[in-house]
Amino acid sequence: MKEVQDHYFKKAKTEGYVARSAYKLEEIDQKHGLLRNGLSVLDLGCFPGSWMQYAQKRVGQKGFVFGVDLQDLQLPLSPNMGFIQEDVFNLNETHFAPFIPPFDLVLSDMAPKTTGHQQIDGARVLGLGQMVLFLAQRWLKPSGNCLIKAFHGPAFEPLLNQMKGEYKKVKPFKPKSSRKESKEVFLLGMGRIWVPKETNE
Ligand SMILES: C[S@@+](CC[C@H](N)C(=O)[O-])C[C@H]1O[C@@H](n2cnc3c(N)ncnc32)[C@H](O)[C@@H]1O
């Protein structure tokens, strides 16, 4: 397994990605055709920026990629990329200027700080996942797609079930480049359904 990790680490260095995570997004993209020329992408928890690098290549000059993270991004940004250092719980539309929501695709590779206490960590994972779903209801185009990093554990089923109510199809995906021992699994919601609730106003 270590060899596989080294393989992706070396590949990222050779191909100029700031992290090996780029290959997780690449695998999901190759399987489900997430990205294409001209799309607008919101990348939540984007630091150090390998998903932004990959997405920017795929959407080309006609698309754009906007990243958000608690940590400041060191990545050089081209004119069709934007970034705000912010907690996703504090986001509002003014942060995206000059880009204008809604987006075609919302990505989240975020994980909360863990405590080692299963119930507390589960609640944090669920809270973060639900925040992504809430933001997607506000800023993702109808029929747009949403990819969320989730974890096997107490938060998994509730998040999956909520997503099933908000997307036409929901598919779990464990990329080969994800560490086998890691509990991470990505949930891909395809085709956002408009959910009528006050949060949509
Ligand atoms: C695994 S990293 C993302 C890697 C990134 N996809 C890449 O390819 O370079 C997860 C990021 O989520 C960010 N994060 C976690 N909670 C956050 C929050 N509430 N608001 C914004 N960013 C958050 C962390 O700061 C961390 O940089």
TrEMBL record:
<protein>
    <recommendedName>
        <fullName>Ribosomal RNA large subunit methyltransferase E</fullName>
        <ecNumber>2.1.1.166</ecNumber>
    </recommendedName>
</protein>
<keyword id="KW-0489">Methyltransferase</keyword>
<keyword id="KW-0949">S-adenosyl-L-methionine</keyword>
<dbReference type="Pfam" id="PF01728">
    <property type="entry name" value="FtsJ"/>
</dbReference>
<dbReference type="InterPro" id="IPR029063">
    <property type="entry name" value="SAM-dependent_MTases_sf"/>
</dbReference>
<dbReference type="InterPro" id="IPR050082">
    <property type="entry name" value="RNA_methyltr_RlmE"/>
</dbReference>
<dbReference type="GO" id="GO:0008650">
    <property type="term" value="F:rRNA (uridine-2'-O-)-methyltransferase activity"/>
</dbReference>
<dbReference type="GO" id="GO:0005737">
    <property type="term" value="C:cytoplasm"/>
</dbReference>
<feature type="binding site">
    <location>
        <position position="87"/>
    </location>
    <ligand>
        <name>S-adenosyl-L-methionine</name>
    </ligand>
</feature>
<keyword id="KW-0963">Cytoplasm</keyword>
<feature type="binding site">
    <location>
        <position position="51"/>
    </location>
    <ligand>
        <name>S-adenosyl-L-methionine</name>
    </ligand>
</feature>
<feature type="domain" description="Ribosomal RNA methyltransferase FtsJ">
    <location>
        <begin position="17"/>
        <end position="192"/>
    </location>
</feature>
<keyword id="KW-0808">Transferase</keyword>
<feature type="binding site">
    <location>
        <position position="109"/>
    </location>
    <ligand>
        <name>S-adenosyl-L-methionine</name>
    </ligand>
</feature>
<comment type="similarity">
    <text>Belongs to the class I-like SAM-binding methyltransferase superfamily. RNA methyltransferase RlmE family.</text>
</comment>
<feature type="binding site">
    <location>
        <position position="69"/>
    </location>
    <ligand>
        <name>S-adenosyl-L-methionine</name>
    </ligand>
</feature>
<feature type="binding site">
    <location>
        <position position="49"/>
    </location>
    <ligand>
        <name>S-adenosyl-L-methionine</name>
    </ligand>
</feature>
<dbReference type="InterPro" id="IPR002877">
    <property type="entry name" value="RNA_MeTrfase_FtsJ_dom"/>
</dbReference>
<feature type="active site" description="Proton acceptor">
    <location>
        <position position="149"/>
    </location>
</feature>
<keyword id="KW-0698">rRNA processing</keyword>
<comment type="function">
    <text>Specifically methylates the uridine in position 2552 of 23S rRNA at the 2'-O position of the ribose in the fully assembled 50S ribosomal subunit.</text>
</comment>
<dbReference type="InterPro" id="IPR015507">
    <property type="entry name" value="rRNA-MeTfrase_E"/>
</dbReference>
